[in-house]
Every structure is written in C-alpha cells, then in structure tokens.
C-alpha cells in the first residue's frame, strides 16, 4: 500500500502558512505505518510543540496505471472517505528552511487517520447519485 498526499493544492491554506503557491501541487508520500489503525488511540507526539491537522478527502486507488487521461481517471479509484493529516509544523518549518524533505514532520507512525471507506459501486446503485467536489471558488457536483 502507498499513501500519496497532495500539498499546496489549496491556495488559501498555502498563503495562510506563508508558503509559495507552486504552479502544480506538491506530491509526497506517507508510509503504511502512518495510517492510524481502527480502534487505536491517537497520542500527541512528544517531538513537536506545534501539531497541526487538516481534514482531507481520501480516495482509494483501485488499479495501477500510468499517463491516464483525465476523462478516464475515475476508473482508477473506487471508494472515498474523510481523513485527518497530522503535521509537526515546527519540525516541518525547520526542514523547509534547510531545503530538506518533510518526512520527519509528516510521515511518522499514526500521522494519518481515515474513516470507513465508502465504495462508489454501492452509491452508483442509488438513483441520481452525484459526487461533490471542492473547487477553489466553491463546491461543485459531478454526476
């Protein structure tokens, strides 16, 4: 299993943190051990004094692919849920200042919590199914 994360894709949040807004989002990964397992308590990590959290949209990628055209992208994921991404922001800021990778601040054990995955197949059976998506200007719907 791989956990792919997308950073700086929300312009307002990037500006709030005084980060440059890149031409395209930053992709980084978390190890499998970052996933908080069900019925496991979350503990505040002792190595940070500034723990931040962000609510995330989580998609389960269901098959391999490369160079997928946008119109076929929805065939490569099959479930959705909500997640929480935890960041040791003080550690991340130190690493960024030195031009170093963020893993120490983002990829520690239990730094990602997710809800129960909701398969799209079950939703498609419901008449009039629509999937909501968030755009920078607001919320839209795709059917």
What does it look like?
With 143 residues, the protein is α+β, with helices and mostly antiparallel strands. Helix content is 17%, strand content 34%. The chain has helices at 11-16, 89-97, 103-106, 120-124; strands at residues 3-7, 26-30, 51-61, 77-88, 112-114, 118-119, 131-135, 138-142. The strands form 3 sheets. Strands 3, 4, 5 and 6 form a 4-stranded antiparallel sheet that branches. Strands 1-2 form a two-stranded antiparallel ribbon.
Report a brief summary of the structure.
This protein is of the alpha+beta class and 143 residues long. The protein has four helices and eight strands, in the order E-H-E-E-E-H-H-E-E-H-E-E.
Radius of gyration: 17 Å
In helices, the fraction of residues equals 10-25%
Gross morphology is globular
Question: What's the count of strands?
Answer: 8
Order of helices and strands: EHEEEHHEEHEE
The major beta sheet can be summarized as: 4 strands, antiparallel
Mean pLDDT: 83
SS-based class: alpha+beta
Distance between the termini: 29 Å
Task: Report the β-strand fraction as a percent range.
Answer: 25-35%
Tally of individual helices: 4
Low-pLDDT residue intervals, each spanning 5 or more residues: 132-143
Question: What characteristics describe this protein?
Answer:
single chain, 143 residues, alpha+beta, 4-stranded antiparallel β-sheet, globular
